[in-house]
Amino acid sequence: MFAISPVHGKPSLSKGQARLLVGKAKWLFAAAESGLDVVPTIGITRTAWDALQAERKSGTDSLRKVWVATLFKLVRPGTKPPELVVRTSAPRHVAGLQPARTGIAAPTNELEAVDTARPLGKAINAAFASYGPPLSAWATEAERDERDNQIVIVQATVDGRIGRFLTRNTTTGKLGPVPLPGEPLRKLPANTAELIRIIDAASGQHMSCVIAISGNSAQFVSARPLQVSAGAQLEASVERVESGVWTPADAVRRFNPAQLPQLLHPRLTDQNRAIPIASGLGVSPGAASGEVVFTPDDAARCRARGRHCILVVMETGPGDIEGMKAATGFVTARGGMTSHAAVVARITGKPCVAGLRTLQIDPEDGKCRIGETTISAGQHITIDGSEGAIYSGALPLSRPHIGGALSRLLDWADDTRTIAVRTNAETVEAARTALTFGAEGIGLARSEHMFFSGDRMRALRRLILSENEDDRATALEGLVDYQAADYAQLFQTMQNKPVTVRLFDPPLHEFLPRSEDDIEDTARALGLSVKALRARLQRLDEVNPMLGHRGVRLVITYPEILSMQVKALVAGVEAAMDNQDMPVNLEIMVPFVTSAREVSWVKSRVMDIVGNAPVFRRGANLAFGTMIELPRACLRAGDIAKEVDFISFGTNDLTQTTYGISRDDAPAFLATYHRRGLYDVDPFVTIDQRGVGELIKIAIERGRAVNPHLKIGICGEHAGETNSLRFFSSLAIDYVSCSPYRVPVARMVLAQSDT
């Protein structure tokens, strides 16, 4: 029970009381402490109010006397007590909060001041009740503390004309006063500008303010924060630094990283007028409109005609990459956050909605059914990859907000950040995009992703389908040239920044032909009969391919693949070094390992090739490491660390193998788990700190114990998610690596974690 702004003088609160102030109470206190005229206001916590009620039932009055004395701080000496106003004061908007109760008669005696049957007590009771129902028996201690410290404020009724305004422009972020939408801005008293400055500095948000105007003086009554565009919030943050209100560190600390995708991607401008026809999983942020197409070939034809299109399919695979490049956005029936479509979408910065269970496609008839709506090929839809919503028709979209203010904020973030931010990229286009966003290297270049085109896919399939060493040798000849040229371009693009290349890890089922047309085309390209190709495909079929013949197992069983790739890497380093002055920093990473003996076997063969390469004697650098994706690798990290220079955690597969859940099939039942409170979050979106996170901690501890100089990174999709990044920042890691468009988010979150 304390006076936030007493009727006379400035407030005098202890540090403990000041920490309780949130929402309206916090802004009122800031203004009163600065000496501005603020409507007399007091506050009471739920704990204090409950204690008053318990005391009332017991017949004692010690707390009641304090409460009455606090109420008298709303009354000017020698005057009649004013009518009162009761308001909630929450740290954030909660649906159902009680609006201000006005015109409440002041209590006529001490007992009436705590009586819940009388107007004041009844209003306070209702205000606390509007915060929500009582907590469940399994609520955490933090949740209980938050509920106990909830505040209700009581104010004196003000005299004079009520004025309303915004502290900043909701589009440009410019300091106000600014009229409320649809309302004229009436003449405001001279001290309004000082009020706006103080409230803006204290809140760091766009605020809607209420004042009482008497003559040429404004008395501050209330304020609440507004939801505004990320662009407006960004411009306001930079302006506060320029005007000396904040330091650069303040701007970094108080900016919400979750808003950054709004600055980098188009988004819907007016969602209130549109009702989604269906919703899936928003797996890649941004919004896009375009004609519906059902095949990658149709997407390429549509783009060639200069039109935008949305590729709507059951799922995507490596063979669809050309059509995906042509499409403006993707919709898939299957898959989740780490599905092929989701990963490609985030790399290319395109929106994607996955796991749309209501999607049915009839390619023969050229139609699909999304929810209850039938859509024909060529009709327009709009997708929101942030929210996972699908809309009928072409809706208006905003343009990305990429400008000087964003660069300045991220530069300030880098001043305090200690963990490096790299990117997951294997194309020059993706690498350049990541560099513009401030990437400090490549933490994951997936070799198999370099074959996402027609000729290259056929070459890779020829390798996979080879039945003997001679066939593989023939197939490998073409692959070396492809990869050497690709690596050279990638190294030159990144200059001397580190580039971590993961050795081949193609889950074979993702790269082999699936449809009838694809099988026929592949058979023709390879000079096989369809029957012979089917026989080979059947021999390669695996019951559980994600746990099958992939990663390190592929190069151990087919060492010629390892030899080919390392030779291509060396050739790429040589070509890059011939065209630049700075040395190439190559890091070779072995995927999907379970033991140090696997790592040692691969390392010896890599070094046999690299050791004879002159380019590493004339300045090029080489590091050898492994990707930790399996629980056993985490537990045996001490053994593995003896063989490597670095380890990098592939959190997508580590989550999959720790939970025993297929990351592509999980969306089918995770919604039920969420609804029933069995999982708080999707573990493929936000890292599971207690399980997967514990394995990572164990691996780091055991690895560094035997190799103190071991470099440690995180290269799964979690490395671009805000809550996961906050967890990673608490670990002894050197870098994270994420999709190009997530690099700014990682830079910001890691900087905030270091302040």
From TrEMBL:
Mg(2+) binds at E629, D653. One of its GO terms (molecular function) is kinase activity. Substrate binds at R446, R502, E629, G650, T651, N652, D653. Its EC number is 2.7.9.1. It is an enzyme of class 2 (transferase). Its cofactor is Mg(2+). Keywords: ATP-binding, Kinase, Magnesium, Metal-binding, Nucleotide-binding, Pyruvate, Transferase. It comes from the Bacteria. Residues 308-388 form the PEP-utilising enzyme mobile domain. Residues 407-754 form the PEP-utilising enzyme C-terminal domain. The active site is at H340 (tele-phosphohistidine intermediate), C715 (proton donor). Catalyzes the reversible phosphorylation of pyruvate and phosphate. Belongs to the PEP-utilizing enzyme family. PANTHER family: PHOSPHOENOLPYRUVATE DIKINASE-RELATED, PYRUVATE, PHOSPHATE DIKINASE 1, CHLOROPLASTIC. This is Pyruvate, phosphate dikinase.
